[in-house]
Amino acid sequence: MSLAILTLAVLPALTLHQDDEPTLQLGVDLAAIAGKVSVSFAELDEVLIWRHGRSPNGREALRSLLDLTVLEHLAAEAGVEVGPKLIAARWTELETEVQEAGVAVDLLDYLAQNEIDPETFRNHLRLSIVHEELTRRALGIASDTPITGEQQTQWLQGVLLERTYEELPHPWSAGVVARTGELEVGREDFALHLRALVTKEEQAEVCHALALEKALLARMPDLAESAVGAAVDAEIERRRERVEADPRYKGIKYEELLEAQGLSLDAVRRDPGLRVHAISHLWSSRTHDDASLREAYETERELFDARHGEAIDVYSIFLRAARFKNALNPRNYDEADASLKELQAKIAGLDDFRRLATQFTEEQNSKENQGYFGRITAGMSTVPGAMRTAAFDAIEAARNEDGVADLTGTVLGPLRVQGGSLLLCLGQRYPAPTWEQMAFHVSRELRRRMRDEVLPRTAVAIWFDK
Fold first, then answer.
1. Which of 12, 239, 248, 291 is most deeply buried (CB count within 10 A of its CB)?
2. Are 50 and 117 members of one domain?
3. Domains identified in the chain, total number
4. 414 preceded by cis ω (within 30°)?
5. Could you give the maximum distance between any two Cα atoms of the chain, in Å?
6. CATH number at residue 368
7. Which domain holds residue 354?
């Protein structure tokens, strides 16, 4: 999970009228609207609580909220008030730092770049000044003597220790998340705090999933909740099998992986993203049998074969380049090609390629994986066309009556792609899948299309959309 402070300001209210129901407003009562389907803030916040309440970042957010709560309380007790002039002065200091660093035109521009609401930032700025003043008073530090962030942190930690910090069991059904002394953090306040921290992209994804689940269930009004529950359990089992079969997880059990992320089986059962996939499988089982899947495949055979047919592992050594050299591009394309040709002369096989990729490639993911780019197909749109063409032209050239000759270790290139040039090395080839494997891909594609038809993301108005 990525956490970044988001604006708490709402858009001008948009009104949803429904017969014989009170008027509901987007940004006031509702987090999202999609035609007759709506998502309340309570529904959005409930998902955020279950997704992030126990995660490492969620725990950090809780402690941050508790710090703010304690500072507000202590400031009121001590009569510490921070006026607008002092806040403006600190704002100017920070703005100067931003401008000198060259990262933004001014502080407002910097906040906009990082999706931080200016009013939320001003309040945190005020509390940081409160924190500094309370620390000075507690430690007897004069106003003209520098004070460090470490001193402020240690003082506040001491205050919390004196007050006895306690976190209550998730999901906080009693309404209290944590308490220290007489101060409490309520479940609703924590949810609102999480909403201010979780990215807009994730909030949009959650709102879309919540709305889509409602729209899918409306398409299948005879669907019993027990059937949905069974479909959810089946989806969890599919995910468990994928995780436990994936060598990247090195034998870690599914529940152990969830726990490391601050999740539980109860949390994923409630998650609208998983529930949408589960309901989609129910729809597929009602709508398609093997014969209809074969018919869909034959109708678009070229597309399915290109995306999910014959595949091959590829490795790359990538060097950044541009037509003309500049501060961001250390070499032009001709220079990159020349450097790659020098490396190519040193490669006698896949092992050499992987060793040199670790040393020279300038693409971080492949560098960390000894040059491994991934398994590609002829129609994989996320892979540069030059790479796909080179790899599958080589496969066709090696095809004979006995099949395809072993191409492992074959080096192709240099190839020019956006942002640079690369050498390509071929690895293991995977023949066209069996019908059982292809049927899985066809079914998945049909489910995706069905979801897009029922409720595309563009049809959902989110509370922060402009």
1. 239
2. yes
3. 3
4. yes
5. 89
6. 3.10.50.40
7. 310-431
The mean per-residue pLDDT over the stretch 190-211 comes to 94
Q: What is the pLDDT of residues 356-413, one digit of tens each?
A: 999 999 999 889 999 999 999 999 999 999 999 999 999 999 998 888 889 999 999 9
Among 199, 216, 247, residue at a domain's last position: 199
Same domain, 99 and 167: yes
Alpha carbon distance 61, 299 (integer Å): 51
The answer to whether position 140 is within a domain reads yes
- Does 2 map to a domain? no
Q: Which of 199, 219, 242 is the last residue of a domain?
A: 199
What is the per-residue pLDDT across 163-176, written as a single tens digit (0 to 9) for each?
888 899 999 999 99
Tokens standing for residue 121: 């930032």
Does residue 42 share a domain with residue 191? yes
Q: How far is residue 200's CA from residue 4's CA, in Å, rounded to a whole number?
A: 9
